[in-house]
Write a structure and sequence with these properties.
The chain has 107 residues and is mostly helical. It contains four helices and two strands, in the order αβααβα.
Amino acid sequence: MDIKDFENKIINADCLDILKQLPDKCIDFILTDPPYILDMNGGKGKAFGDRKLIKDKHIDFIAHDFDHEKVFDEFLRISKQVNMVIFCSNAQISRTMAFFERGGGIR
């Protein structure tokens, strides 16, 4: 597909499926806020814990991790140069940094 097919559109799809359709070296900048690893166990106080568990049922679909290697490899493939801002949870920082420190960001 041509990059023009994706411009100025909101796409409701699995990002990995869309990334695979993009041509090599077509993106100038990536700003992403991927799914976090969230604590789904509730709080320490019973009342607070119950409320948190009810709330978490509504976000369960985004409360789990994603395949860093596959997504970041695609980010690198479609990037003209490495120019990214990646938001993540504390539980994901080390794995995200490790990907780029071991040469994932050098192509």
